[in-house]
Design goal:
With 219 residues, the protein is of the alpha/beta class. The protein is 33% helix and 16% strand. Strands 1, 2, 3, 4, 5, 6 and 7 form a seven-stranded mixed beta sheet that branches. Helix 1 crosses helix 6. The protein is globular. The relative contact order is 0.17.
Amino acid sequence: KENEERTPRKSCAGPGRVRRVETDPGPNGERNSRMNEHRTRVVIIVGSVRRGRFGPTVADWFASVARRRGDIEVDVVDLAEAWLPGVLPEDGGPVPAAVRDLGPWLAAADAFVIVTPEYNHSFPAALKNAIDWYREEWRAKPVAFVSYGDAAGGVRAVEQLRLVFAGLEAVTVRDAVRFHDCRACFAPAAAGPAAERMLDRLLWWGRALRPARSVPVTA
């Protein structure tokens, strides 16, 4: 088990469920016309909801790297503040308000970055729950990963998430960022080049897949 979640820390998301949103996603995830069409909208998802989690520290750092670029618009979704129910309804059943609230932000995204720890050689249950509440919001979009933990650095969690997103017809980016022994030696400056390379690939896939999202999926 990765035991990196110990020190209490203030939530990454701040007020509300989505942090630093500069544009209204509009109904059904449509972008506000004020948004620069040449920028790629990237949603960073903080996957751990444990008290004392290290995830907000990692997400804050990665968001700052992404925001230095002129070709990205960044939103941060903290699952600890999304309050998504743990029980999914039957097919066709009512959709809870928390799920409806978060859906437009995911739908408006061109790409995702998942910030995840590794628990018991896997990823957090809250992250899987959040993924399972949605489907079309993930389809034909690229997903990249920033992981952290002890010696493994979250690599096993990421490999399992790649299988999950493949089942949702999302495309995972080969490049990833990992932090080993993050509590003892979190050195984000050294990971800067890796983060830039991953963002380059993520944006390439985001632009390449954008036309595909308008094509209906055949049975």
